[in-house]
Amino acid sequence: MTQIKDPIKIYDARWEVSEFNDQEVKRLFEATLGYARIIGVDTLVLTRDARLGCARVMEIGIKVAMEAGFRVFACFDPISTPLGYFATMQTIQKYPQTMGLTVTASHNPRQYIGIKYTVPTVEAIGYDCGPHGGLKKVKELYHESGFALGKAAGGSLTILQNPVDEYINYTFNLAGVEAGVLQGLSVILDTFNGSAGPELYRALQIAGVAINPLRLAPNGEFPTGSPNPTSQNKMDPAIEQAKLTGADLVIGIDGDGDRMVFGDQMGVFSAGFVMIPILNSILSQSGSKSPQKVLYDPKVNPMALLKWAELNAEPVLFRNGHSQIKAFMKEIGALAGAEESGHFYHRLPLGEMVVSGENSLYTILLFLKSVLRNKAIISEIRTLQNQIYTSGEFNFEFTDDVIRDQALNSVIAIFENDQARLTTHSENGDDLEGTVVYKGIERQSGKIILRDDWYAAFVRTATNEKGVVRTYISSCDDKVGRGLQEKIVSLLSGQFKGKEIE
Q1: Is 242 inside any structural domain?
Q2: Does 132 lie in the same domain as 49?
Q3: Which end of the chain has fewer beta carbons closer than 10 Å to its terminal beta carbon, N or C?
Q4: Please, are residues 434 and 446 in contact by the beta-carbon 8 Å criterion?
Q5: Residue of 379, 384, 392 lying closest to 303 (CA atoms)
Q6: Do the beta carbons of residue 84 and residue 357 sit within 8 Å?
Q7: Which residues of 72-89 are buried (b: 16+ CB within 10 A; e: fewer)?
Q8: Can you count the helices (H) and strands (E) in the chain?
Q9: Cα 49 to chain center, whole Å?
Q10: Whole-model pTM?
Q11: What is the distance, to the nearest Å, from the Cα of residue 453 to the centroid of all Cα atoms in its chain?
Q12: Residue 121: is the preceding peptide bond cis (ω within 30°)?
């Protein structure tokens, strides 16, 4: 069977709804289940978020799985990806050979759809990440002309009740939080009409938080644009509401509930700074005297890493990528991890199993718990934030990948001409899937030294969208950072006729 189009990306499967017909989606599930058989999976958990394209994809997947003889558990309520992971964790307690499939396209615009994968025991896989190459093997089967899944007896379907109550109780226990304990905190919660809104609102209300919700009802049309709180200006309505009401904090979360931002009445915080109170909560619970490894991606600003180290954390650089970063967490025994894109990772125990992954409610509770203990931490983070400049990720779309690559190389040339230090690999040799830029940042005796004119940047192509260059800058001050950003924007929009997108 010859295929030209390909739904398999680096971290998951992702495509535009109009791009693949039902037969092609069926083929993806056949390849997925062929892979499942290779690794000994006999049970599937299928969950979905609020996207309009989810129902069609989910129904195709259930039909293919049942005809192939798999035991299928499906939750049809629109729920967050972390809650879907929890449902898979629960199922694995009885059926150890369980694969989890979450139908979602995360923060992408409404026309996208996709699937996120976990394999036993709730380990996220990506391309060349996971048993037998993970999604690389799925892709091979998808394109293999001689591959046929075949039918088998014994297939079954059980409809799962939404496990939100168990999820909330589990997460409260994990975070050391009881009902009502967070009284005294007020939050603007913007969930961008994604699937995480109802579950987070419910949990925080139980915890005693005073909540003012925005875009709370799940709506796969995403009427105010792509559900990505990390895009520039996306959190402005929440920030304005915080000013009007005097709320302590703003929290924004993406379409499937695994990407979030925190901020105050003045704006959003860098994820690197957000990790300071989170690490304070985790490390105080761990009781370890030796430094604990905490992963960070190339966009986390160097000032934040200095503060992590003061809390007895050992920052470890790793590439972007949800599947890959979680696998590396497990490999090196990291306690936690953060990406500047708004992803936060933790060790999540259930029974005898420990999963490295996302639980957004846990992240929020840890942050709020630390803030309640010392409300001054909000102003401390704001002071740190005001000391530096962060651009947010600014993205330009081009007519094709050839022009995209030319534009990317021209951006990199700007930094080369400024005699910045460029790297494409981490200290242990892992490909960072982009170019990391450092100027005025040095390591001496294991410590990070920042010059007065330092800046850092990360430049890459998008993995799940066509013809897109993504750039992120952090720097010592507005003048340095904005100057670089303006120069890059002028280049991409002028010489290469790029269109700035969310």
Answers
A1: yes
A2: yes
A3: N
A4: no
A5: 384
A6: no
A7: bbbbbbbbbbbbbbbbbb
A8: 14, 24
A9: 15
A10: 0.90
A11: 31
A12: yes
Residues 277 and 318 in one domain: yes
Domain identity same for 234 and 294: no
Q: What is the pLDDT along the chain (502 residues), one digit of tens a residue?
A: 444 688 998 889 999 999 999 999 999 999 999 999 999 999 999 999 999 999 999 999 999 999 999 999 999 999 999 999 999 999 999 999 999 999 999 999 999 999 999 999 999 999 999 999 999 999 999 999 999 999 999 999 999 999 999 999 999 999 999 999 999 999 999 999 999 999 999 999 999 999 999 999 999 999 999 999 988 789 999 999 999 999 999 999 999 999 999 999 999 999 999 999 999 999 887 766 788 999 999 999 999 998 998 888 999 988 877 888 999 999 999 999 999 889 999 999 999 999 999 999 999 999 999 999 999 999 999 999 999 998 888 999 999 999 999 999 999 999 999 999 999 988 878 888 899 999 998 877 667 888 999 999 999 998 767 899 999 999 999 999 999 999 999 999 999 999 999 7
168 in a structural domain: no
In a shared domain, residues 359 and 415: no
* Shared domain check, 195 and 62: no
User: Tokens at residue 116, please?
Assistant: 């996120």
Closest CA to 215 of 50, 343, 81: 50
**Domain membership of residue 244 as a residue range:** 176-266
Longest dimension (CA), the chain: 68
Could you give the CA distance from residue 66 to residue 58 in angstroms, rounded to a whole number? 12
- Tell which of 337, 364, 386 closes a domain: 386
Contact indicator for 215, 192 with CB cutoff of 8 Å: yes
The reply to whether 322 and 232 lie within a common domain is no
23, β-bridge pairs: none
Helix, strand, coil percentages (3-state) for the chain, rounded to 5, are: 35, 30, 35
3-state SS string for 193-262: CCCCHHHHHHHHHHHCCEEEEECCCCCCCCCCCCCCCCCCCCCHHHHHHHHHHCCCEEEEECCCCCCEEE
The CA distance from 347 to 329, in Å, is: 9
**273 in the same domain as 262:** no
CATH label of the domain that carries residue 297: 3.40.120.10
Pair of tokens at residue 395: 């993205």
The DSSP bridge partners found for residue 419 are none
Which tokens go with 144? 């293999």
Q: Are 277 and 373 in contact (CB under 8 A)?
A: no
Tell me which H or E stretch contains 175. Answer: helix 164-175
Q: Work out how many domains the chain is built from and give that number.
A: 4
- Supply 211's token pair: 């909540």
